[in-house]
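Design request, tokens follow.
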């Protein structure tokens, strides 16, 4: 099989940028997009945004930055195995979480509630806003002026109502067609990355235990293999050896099943891919095991009372910031005050969404604690 496959995305046949630009002399269009993403402010902020654990809770936990790097690495691996375009998957992976609020899902839910009467807030849509509008670095355009294929991949899901407002990248949600295989596989890489690193972080934090995880066959089966091969292994290595085997099980299954799906459907071009049902998938057995793993994490980690306590605090911070700024736009930095003249609620939401965890905590302190200045 030649690389890339005829149904892979092709930077020379890209559906283009919103504002046309001359081609780069050294890089294809998707490489260039990846470079723009890495140079963006929003990308650097990922370092201080929460995945599950708030940034200050420990230096060893994943942040959105290390998560995005893990997703990019897995996505490239899958793309290479399936002869798809690695540069495109890398760009999508590195950009996929740019729109996350501080404090992970707790922050997003709180901001969404604040924005209920103003069109809501959704992190996936926000990632698109970041690359289309909010990064202000280039002389000729707002945002990063990325190719259609990267923007399509960033917008993983979208309500019909929002799709109607989005133009080209919204269209597939109205037509019920599929995105590129590169976009499809990056979603799976995201899922494989977070399920497994959340197990690792959850065990390290002590919020979940190996004993509890014995109910998850994906974990238990791989743990048994490691124990059989290395009966005296210390705990830290035991966990890592188990988690890496879980990742491998999922990655191999995804590549094998997806290759089968592709062989069955015989797509000839990316246009065929867009008309076919999504071809990247786990086998039914592994999909079920993966579902059980997610369920376990939901019940035992994401809703652990200690996580709930931090989430409740995070929600309070976001709500209080939102209301303080919304009631008095004079508290916003100057450029956001100007923006607030045209759309007050959205300006406040964009300002808060851009904050890192620690910036939001500091900003909250500055606004609500008399002893803090500035
Ligand atoms: Mg992610």
């Amino acid at each position: 099989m030649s690389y890339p496959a005829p149904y892979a995305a092709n930077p020379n046949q890209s559906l283009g940028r919103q504002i046309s630009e001359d081609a780069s002399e050294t890089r294809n269009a998707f490489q260039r997009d990846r470079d723009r993403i890495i140079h963006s402010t929003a990308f650097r902020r990922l370092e201080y945004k929460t995945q599950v654990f708030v940034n200050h809770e420990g230096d060893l936990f994943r942040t959105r930055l290390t998560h995005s790097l893990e997703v990019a690495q897995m996505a490239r691996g899958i793309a290479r195995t399936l002869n798809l375009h690695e540069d495109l998957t890398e760009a999508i992976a590195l950009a996929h979480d740019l729109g996350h609020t501080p404090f992970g899902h707790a922050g997003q839910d709180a901001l969404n509630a604040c924005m209920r009467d103003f069109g809501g807030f959704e992190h996936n849509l926000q990632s698109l806003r970041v690359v289309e509008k909010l990064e202000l670095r280039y002389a000729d355009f707002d945002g990063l002026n990325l190719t259609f294929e990267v923007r399509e991949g960033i917008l993983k899901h979208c309500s019909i109502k929002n799709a109607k407002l989005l133009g080209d990248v919204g269209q597939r949600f109205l037509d019920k067609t599929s995105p590129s295989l590169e976009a499809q596989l990056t979603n799976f890489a995201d899922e494989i990355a977070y399920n497994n690193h959340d197990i690792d972080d959850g065990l390290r934090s002590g919020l979940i235990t190996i004993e509890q995880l014995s109910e998850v066959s994906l974990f238990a089966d791989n743990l048994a293999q490691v124990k059989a091969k290395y009966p005296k292994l210390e705990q830290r290595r035991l966990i890592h050896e188990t988690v890496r085997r879980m990742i491998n099980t999922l990655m191999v299954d995804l590549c094998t099943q997806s290759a089968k799906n592709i062989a069955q459907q015989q797509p000839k071009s990316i246009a065929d891919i867009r008309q076919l049902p999504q071809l990247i998938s786990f086998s039914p057995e592994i999909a079920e095991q993966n579902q059980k793993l997610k369920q376990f994490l939901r019940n035992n980690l994401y809703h652990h009372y200690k996580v709930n306590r931090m989430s409740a605090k995070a929600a309070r911070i976001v709500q209080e910031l939102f209301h303080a700024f919304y009631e008095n736009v004079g508290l916003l930095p100057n450029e956001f005050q100007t923006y607030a003249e045209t759309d007050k609620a959205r300006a406040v939401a964009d300002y808060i969404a851009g904050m890192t965890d620690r910036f939001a905590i500091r900003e909250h302190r500055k606004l609500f604690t008399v002893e803090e200045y500035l």
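Comment from the thread starter after seeing the answer: thanks! The mean pLDDT is 94.
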